[in-house]
Write a structure and sequence with these properties.
With 519 residues, the chain is of the alpha/beta class. The chain has two domains: 33-206 and 316-430, Alkaline Phosphatase, subunit A (3-Layer(aba) Sandwich); 437-518, Arylsulfatase, C-terminal domain, CATH 3.30.1120. The chain has 14 helices and 18 strands. It has helices at residues 9-17, 59-66, 81-90, 94-97, 114-120, 171-186, 235-239, 266-274, 278-298, 302-337, 369-372, 399-406, 421-425, 494-510, and strands at residues 19-23, 26-30, 34-40, 68-71, 74-75, 124-130, 142-146, 156-159, 164-166, 193-198, 344-350, 376-379, 388-390, 394-395, 436-440, 452-456, 460-465, 471-476. It has a ten-stranded mixed sheet with strand order 9-8-7-6-10-3-11-12-4-13, sandwiched between helices.
Length: 519
Amino acid sequence: MKQIPQLKTMALMALSSATLLQVNGQSKEKKPLNIVYIMTDDHTAQMMSCYDKRYMHTPNLDRIAEHGVRFTSSYVANSLSGPSRACMITGKHSHANGFTDNTTCVFDASQPTFPKMLQRAGYQTAVFGKWHLESLPTGFDKWEIVPGQGDYYNPRFIEMNGDTINQKGYLTDLITDKSIDWIENQRDKGKPFCILIHHKAIHRNWLSKIEDLHLYEDRTFPVPRNFYDDYEGRPAAAAQEMSIDKDMDLIYDLKMDRDDLNSSLKPTYLNMIKRMNPQERKAWHEFYDSIACDFYSRDLKGRELAEWKFQRYVRDYMKVVKSLDDNVGRVLDYLEKSGLIENTLVVYTSDQGFYIGEHGWFDKRFMYEESFHTPLIMRLPEGFDRRGDISEMVQNIDYAPTFLEIAGAPIPDDMQGMSLMPLLRGDKNVKWRDALYYHFYEYPAEHSVKRHYGVSNGRYKLIHFYNDIDHWEFYDLLNDPYEMHNIYNVPAVKPLVEKMRQRLVELQKQYKDPIISKN
């Protein structure tokens, strides 16, 4: 796959425009597949009912998995929004694509990306929504992106001509509107297409649609079993600043505003609320002000306060997921009604996972499972018989080579991911990877998560925290799935630690990570 010579490019492009499929003994021309890639921000698998039924029902996301596959060992290379997107679009780890963190980097838009390669293979390409790579998109026939993180209410969009315009509505709805309109009315219908539908949802600070404000208020959720983690033997975990108890802001995150109270994030929160129209603000204040009044009258402390904050966080998070799921349903309904569904690969994923109270946290960044893992489901088109779960370890650097192989386009030799096509075809003889490499860079920065890199083979995980710290962690995920016990210094596991350390160095060499010289 990756060894396809560049000299065969023109031949492959010709093949991608039409292939022959044997049906009932007869050759039938089959159109090239379209690709609809839907990516959200900070949507964790715990909040998708096709993965986890503890919290909420996501019927439209489940529709994707029911008509295709669910990846049960899907991971990211760097659990942070911008870097994760750069890994996805280039098929390379962060050090190789140059976008290592959100605070210092600008994505080099001149470098090869899979949308550019799809264009050369005859595809029309588009992206709508959150971009978050600092430079403007390239390789797209059409794009409209939100500035930075974007606004949930009456948001601004940057258009291809450079203008920034204000639009009325809820962001998740608007991104879906633009995406469907492009597929239906703006593209060249004589060509296959690839569209990236990039949502801001479910990003902090979880502002739901007004119509969904009252959802889930009658439910109480059990706190995770490691909610009161004391971080023994894990100094990097102890040093973070993403605790629901200590770091989740009552006004910005939980909307418990009061005129006589302030926080450093209150001005940002008020600016977000000001984007609503008068009717929206009225409904918003009627809902949250009554909760705030009750909350402040109770003067909660200690564990009672921490668990109250957890319940508010979970409910608000779920409300944003609800709107997202509704809009995924709109896309699926359109593809079905337009007759496109059987010739379109539909992919749903997030830029990383997220903590829903595990270890007492919100946010992401760590190589621990909840943020390292990301949901990945695919609705497979006609001709793909694979259904159900795929357990092989996959990573977001794999998406680019997958889309290129689907299009019949050559996969560059320096692309570090692996095409998922053998797994989607159900190839039982495929030789797959046995471990994944991870590297997080953004420190010092918000949430104070130390720099670290690591390796996981699905059973064992080895992590090295470095920079202003030199600390190793080792986990047996079978016997310690909640990653509470760092057994790096346990004598009985030293042979396993050394084996994983060797595998770590092998991957660092394979991917040419410069950190190898410091390891």
